[in-house]
Task: structure prediction
Amino acid sequence: MEAATNIFSSSIYSWYEKHGRKDLPWRKNITPYSVWISEIMLQQTQVKTVIPFYERFMKKFPDLNAISDASEEEILALWTGLGFYRRAKNIFAAKEIVKKNFDNNFPSTFDELVSLPGIGKSTAGAILSIAYKKSFPILDANVKRVISRHDKVDVSEKKSDNKLWQLSDLYTPNKKIFEYTQGIMDVGATVCSIKKPTCIECPVSKTCKTAFEEIKVIRKSKKEKPQREIFFKLAHSNNKFLLFKKNSKSFWESLWVPYEDEGIKNDKIFKKPLKRNQQKFNHALSHLDLMITIEIFEYKKPFKISTNREHQWICRDEIKNYGLPKPIKHIIDNHV
Ligand code: SF4
Result:
């Protein structure tokens, strides 16, 4: 068994040396911090989407010192359009803990890492193996696919995750851990793809139990997502926009949105605009389909409103400093 696991890992790290995606931005100037940010961004998001967000983020906050005094607002602003905003809130919470409990030094043990918000077993494994070059397994979606196919593990079975972690642990080598970890991620992303694995190019095809077999992609029956209608009122005047911070514990928490009309009749806040128009569109969240109506009101000058909701008139060129949901940013950029 030991020889077989050695063959698996050495095939992967040797493949990485020749074919790995070494030009990805997070594969340059590697630090525990840079691996952390990239791994969090790559959760639930594709590489090509992440690249510009990662580059922008690292330009503003290249290391722990740079991010140490950042506000949640600044981090959310850089996350605008990337979605799953809980990840940005976790980065803020985690860097605060690192500052308070670790003297602003990035933790280097498994237990310390998984104690931070947003860092699970696989992300901790990636940070330890890539940045600290310590032998720890990972099991992200790409690695899961490679190992489950290689060892014919039925991922629909309840306990398959335990089995896959055991195998990932077994295959993780003591040497060349950096090359191995990035290599198995890359094999999953570029060779052992979801629909059409190119087994002929795969470094572990000789030992793979499903090599060259036809892949049947079992689509999970899509659950109908609940739908929700939401109504916004967007006031603007001379390139300033009246936006409100969403403080409720639901989607888009802590982001800035137009006034959310919760069905209060005779709402006096928005009266006598110079112009008004309306936009209607749908927007899919992971758990909810939103049907959004935005009424857009233009005013001669910004006005004061009396409300206990946190709000501001924000200049168009200052909007980049605030976290906004993608569809709201799109409306402001393209329809006002
Ligand atoms: S041989 Fe094919 S199925 Fe097996 S791990 Fe490689 S690409 Fe995936």
The radius of gyration is 24 Å.
